[in-house]
Design a protein that fits this description.
This protein is of the alpha+beta class and 350 residues long. It has two domains: 6-218, Thiolase/Chalcone synthase (Peroxisomal Thiolase, Chain A, domain 1, 3-Layer(aba) Sandwich); 229-346, 3-Layer(aba) Sandwich (Peroxisomal Thiolase, Chain A, domain 1), CATH 3.40.47. Helices cover 35% and strands 21% of the residues. The chain is built from twelve helices and twelve strands. The strands form two sheets. Strands 1, 2, 5, 6, 7, 8, 9, 10, 11 and 12 form a ten-stranded mixed beta sheet that branches. The chain has a two-stranded antiparallel sheet with strand order 3-4. A hairpin with a 2-residue loop joins β1 and β2 (18-19).
Length: 350
């Protein structure tokens, strides 16, 4: 591996498969579905099924005070980052946090908007939930609770949020702004997100939730690496024709990493249908597209989908010796027209 390239040296997840890396990896390899009945009284949605984090009790997983009034996205992030910290991830002023999101907690934002319109005075909002109305609440809460006092950033980039977060984190490391960065993304399930999804794209896959986070470090640390980040490419599609943008993005990515198309071991997309799959089918053989399960098992996880795609690659590859040292591509096309892709090289010894 190139000594200067950033590497992933650890990860964790809170997902519809359960809490932690082990639960996620076992779920991906088993291929089991996670859709379950929705408590419509609690969530106030017409959905009968969704892919929710099972038995999620933030007070049990995280502990401490100040959790009651936090939004669900922040509590999911706290649980995922907390598990990574327990694995021995460094904290302090030389550690950073970079989390991807769609737009923070949609539920809290919409609740505040509704209250400001219906209350007798628009500024009479619940002060205990005001922090959750800011997009960077999840990253800020993780930094405060786990004493991560280095760079702290939130990136809003839809399904490709983790790809953008990886590029941002790589720049932090290259500029010596941090020795390690916890990077990933989180997405909550809520009534607000359900209604936004339903009115913007109809009845596409069931909604899911959760978050995945990774420890990113310089390749010179000497710590055992799981994967090397060879490069990131992004595009913006303004005319609705995502197909050529996806192909151009991935071709540029492979050129950047000096990787031939036939060398790629696996390609993972963040949706199970549509332009992503069709475009990748033009570039790669069918077996490359099916070596790692897609996101259909855990539903549409929004901003966390590219994080879960990376976690899925690591989960499958750790049991397959033939994957060692091979490149993989994670590609994401967001309905807004944003296209993003990251090229990883799996470690020689997993």
């Amino acid at each position: 591996m190139a000594a200067t390239a950033p590497v992933i040296t650890g990860w964790s997840a809170v997902s519809p498969f359960g809490h932690g890396r082990t639960a996620f990896a076992a779920g991906v390899r088993s291929g089991r579905p996670t859709a379950a009945a929705v408590d419509t009284d609690r969530w106030s949605v017409p959905d009968t099924q969704a892919c929710l984090v099972p038995d999620f009790d933030v007070e049990e997983l995280v502990g401490g005070k100040g959790l009651r009034h936090l939004d669900r996205a922040s509590t999911l992030a706290l649980a995922a980052v907390g598990d990574l910290v327990e694995q021995g991830v460094d904290t302090g002023h030389r550690a950073g946090v970079v989390l991807g999101t769609t737009s923070g907690s949609m539920q809290t934002e919409m609740t505040h908007m509704r209250d400001s319109l219906l209350n007798s005075r628009p500024h009479l909002l619940n002060p205990k939930t005001l922090a959750s109305g800011s997009m960077n609440c999840a990253a800020a809460q993780c930094a405060i609770r786990y004493d991560i006092t280095g760079p702290n950033t939130t990136l809003a980039a839809g399904r490709g949020a983790t790809v953008h977060a990886l590029r941002y984190s790589s720049r932090l490391l290259a500029a010596d702004r941090a020795d390690s960065v916890i990077v990933g993304a989180v997405e909550e399930y809520s009534a607000a997100r359900h209604w936004l999804a339903r009115h913007s794209r109809g009845s596409e896959p069931l909604l899911g939730e959760g978050g995945a986070v990774f420890r990113l470090e310089p390749g010179t640390t000497g710590r055992a690496a799981l994967a090397e980040v060879l490069g990131v490419e992004t595009r913006v599609c303004l005319d609705g024709a995502a197909h050529p943008a996806l192909i151009e993005c991935v071709r540029a990515l492979l050129k950047r990493g000096s990787v031939a198309t036939q060398e790629v071991w696996a390609v993972v997309t963040t949706t199970t249908s549509g332009a992503e799959r069709e475009a990748m089918a033009e570039l790669f053989a069918p077996d490359v597209l099916t070596r790692v399960p897609g996101p259909h098992q855990i539903g549409d996880t929004g901003a966390a989908s590219s994080a879960f795609a990376i976690a899925s690659v690591l989960s499958v590859a750790e049991r397959l010796p033939e994957a060692a040292g091979r490149p993989v591509v994670i590609v994401s096309g967001d309905p807004t027209g944003a296209v993003a892709a990251v090229l990883l090289r799996l470690a020689g010894e997993l």
